[in-house]
Amino acid sequence: MKRLVAALIILAAIVTAGVLEAVHVERTFGELEERICALEDAIKNPDDDALDEVKTLTVWWEKKRAAMELYTWSPDLRAFSVALAETEGSLECGDDKNALSKCQSLLTMARNLKRLLDFSPSDLI
């Protein structure tokens, strides 16, 4: 009986960790998409400071990436950091058109990463 209780406690801990991971991934990538859209809007509007926006996004992302790497690992998480740096470099050079195209790449990468890291019933098979 003790083994059954121990097994059920372990199973509950595993399921809880999985649910918490899925919630964290969902929230992180939801906010990430909003921030990338805000960056895109800042690039399109000459009155906004897009360079500050991308720097803020990079600092935020690096914290989130470090937290996610505690429970999951994907080389794409680090590749996303590189793409953010490329966007920042484009803005520093004044190449807004390239920075806008990078924003589209960032959105696509974020959506793909979310699908990769988020829970799917097909993961059980």
Structure characterization notes:
- The protein is an all-alpha fold and 125 residues long.
- The protein has one domain (27-117).
- It is 82% helix and 0% strand.
- The protein is built from four helices and no strands.
What is shown here, in short?
With 125 residues, the chain is mainly alpha-helical. The protein contains 4 helices and no strands.
Index terms:
single chain, 125 residues, mainly alpha, elongated
Count of the separate structural domains? 1
Radius of gyration: 18 Å
The helix/strand order is HHHH
Number of helices: 4
Which spans of ≥5 residues are poorly predicted at pLDDT below 50? none
Structural class: mainly alpha
| Main beta-sheet strand count, sense and barrel state | none
Record the SSE blueprint.
Elements: H1 2-44, H2 50-68, H3 75-92, H4 96-117
Helix pairs in contact: 1-2, 1-4, 2-3, 3-4
